[in-house]
Amino acid sequence: MRLLTFVFLISVVSTAHAQTAEQKFKNIQIFKTLPATQLDPTMAFISGSLGVRCSYCHVSNSFDKDDKPTKLTARRMIQMVFDLNKGSFNGQGAVTCYTCHRGKPTPVSVPVVGQNLWAPSSPSPTPEAPPSVKQILDRYVQAIGGADALTKITSRTAKGSRIGADGVLVPEEVYQKAPDKLLTITSYPNIVFSNGYNGTLAWGHSSREGPTPLPDQLIAQLKRDAVFYKELKTQELYSSLTFVGRDADAYVIQATPVNGPVEKLFFDARTGLLVRRYTESDTPLGKLPLQVDYEDYRDVDGIKQPFLIHWSFPGRVWGRKIDEIKQNVPLDDAKFNPIVSRP
Question: What pTM was computed for the model?
Fold first, then answer.
């Protein structure tokens, strides 16, 4: 669980020479040529689609074993999905595990009762005039503290805890330095994960395994997170920004990066603050959504920062609880360089 959580939060250098799933793991039957770094997200897609934990199909601590009938069934179902899409939908991922399962191990095949499709429709309310993308982004900058206050800050450190999917807290530190440096250190009792971007290179490291190759599609996200004045540079970080509507109490902007999947940015209609990011990444079985929620904004030296962040994808939620943020702390550039050897 903890390793999988880590996969979704960091990125590393190009994985052109990365191992395949068959090379890295034992008893791979269906996903032999899949990059090993993509196996965890694919398993997460299956887990979320069926609403089950890994142990539903796998033997705990012996994932390679075929002792459980559910694992053998899963292989047949995965092949069925591939065959359906290939034979009926020109190879496109129109059918996924979630198409039938909808978060339950046993698919529902009978329509629900209780809906009255013939009831008269209520007239739709007159929609309010939407704000422009520029108005939303300008208000966001002001809500954070304003451009002048933001540019007076050149570095930042945050200390707190990673909130595991199991609710367990472990120490976590985040270091940032203008214009584009980022380092996160998560210290579990028996292993330390580090990941960062030094302005040129994105990387990951495990105290147990050394340099850790992870999915390439996350590199672009890490680079955007490393941009120190990202609140001022939103329009530079994306090739296009489009207002797509209002979701409850938030204005939603669709943001298309130069590289990486499309994001949706949610800005609180009342405060103007960024409260959510939503994106979908490709897996062999379908798109896996990832949602990031920003909460508990507090003023630190004239700048509002979220002290609670939650990451969510189907079937799992984890987070970061910040206890302390310091601004303009002296940080050596070398701190953000890749760790190349084990401690």
Answer: 0.86
CA 114 centroid distance within chain:
36
Nearest residue to 313 via CA among 340, 335, 293: 293
Q: Is the peptide bond before 189 cis (omega within 30 degrees of 0)?
A: no
The predicted-structure confidence for 138-151, as pLDDT tens digits, reads as follows 999 999 999 999 99
CA-CA distances (angstroms) from residue 195 to 10, 234, 312?
6, 23, 20
Spatial contact of 296 and 283, defined as CB atoms under 8 Å apart? no
- Distance (Å, whole) CA 281 – CA 313: 11
pLDDT band at residue 5, thresholds of 50, 70 and 90?
A: very low
Cα–Cα distance measured from residue 212 to residue 219, given in angstroms and rounded to the nearest whole number: 13
Taking the C-alpha atoms of residue 186 and residue 182, their distance in angstroms, rounded to an integer, is 13
Residue 252 CB: number of other CB atoms within 10 A?
19
Question: Which segments of 142-237 are extended strands (E)?
Answer: 155-163, 169-177, 181-187, 192-197, 202-206, 210-211
Say if CB 147 and CB 232 are below 8 A apart.
yes
| Residue found by looking up tokens 């092949």 in the block | 79
> Is 235:254 a contact under the CB 8 Å cutoff?
no
The two tokens of residue 58 are: 């796998």
Q: What distance in Å separates the CA atoms of residue 21 and residue 28, rounded to the nearest whole number? A: 7
Percentage above 90 pLDDT, the chain:
67
CB 221 within 8 A of CB 35: no
At 19, the pLDDT band (50, 70, 90 cuts) reads confident
Question: What is the model's pLDDT at position 341?
Answer: 62
Q: Quick one: pLDDT band at residue 217, thresholds 50, 70, 90?
A: low
Burial, 317: exposed, middle or buried (Cβ in 10 Å; 0-12, 13-18, 19+)? middle
Rounded mean pLDDT, 85-97: 90
* DSSP-derived secondary structure letter, 89: S
Q: What is the DSSP string of 14-56?
A: --TTPPBHHHHSSS--S-TTSBGGGHHHHHHHHHHHHT--GGG
